[in-house]
Every structure is written in C-alpha cells, then in structure tokens.
Amino acid sequence: MRLDKYLKVSRLIKRRTVANDACDAGRVKVNDKVARASYDIKEGDLIEISFGNKTVKAEVLKVAETVKKEETADMFRIVE
To answer: What's the CA gap between 78 and 58, in Å, rounded?
Structure first.
C-alpha cells in the first residue's frame, strides 16, 4: 500500500492530500529515511511524522485497504 494512503486509512493524517503534501515536503520518514508518497509500506516499518515542533513515531502493525474507525488503533503502535 502507498504511504500516503496508509496515513489516511490509519488516520495518522486526516486527508490523503495532506499526507501527500507532508511527504513532498520531507516531513515523513520511514525507517529513518525521507519517504515519498509512493513508498510501498509494509508491516514492521517505522514511520516518523513531523508536525511543526512535534514528532510522532509509529510502528506499522497491519496494512489494510479499508478499516472501520474503531479498528484503526490496531493498524499501528505509537513508539516513544
């Protein structure tokens, strides 16, 4: 699955266009490398998103095309 779509489906970022813009601006890293929106995300990948002065790190636990709102928490685990 594409990185921008995963960010939207998992609700780490609310809209796919915003996720795409964040990737283009270099604010999203996967496994400590700046990733493009077209990056193929896999289970076990570590995503790091920079929101201004705040950084969110999440480990990918599950990749699914469609997920109910209640099940999005099962898709990733926040890493401190």
So the answer is: 4
Do β-strands 46-51 and 28-30 pair in parallel, antiparallel, or remain unpaired? antiparallel
Buried b / exposed e across 8-19, counting CB within 10 Å, b at 16+? Answer: bbbebbeebeeb
Q: What pTM value is reported for the model?
A: 0.91
CB-based contacts of 12, cutoff 8 Å, min separation 6? 6, 19, 47, 49, 56, 58, 76
Amino acid at 71: E
Residue type at 77 in one-letter notation:
R
- Measured in residues, the chain has a length of 80
Give the whole-angstrom CA distance, residue 62 versus residue 47: 13
CB count in 10 Å sphere of residue 59:
13
pLDDT in tens, 18-53: 999 999 999 999 999 999 999 999 999 999 999 889
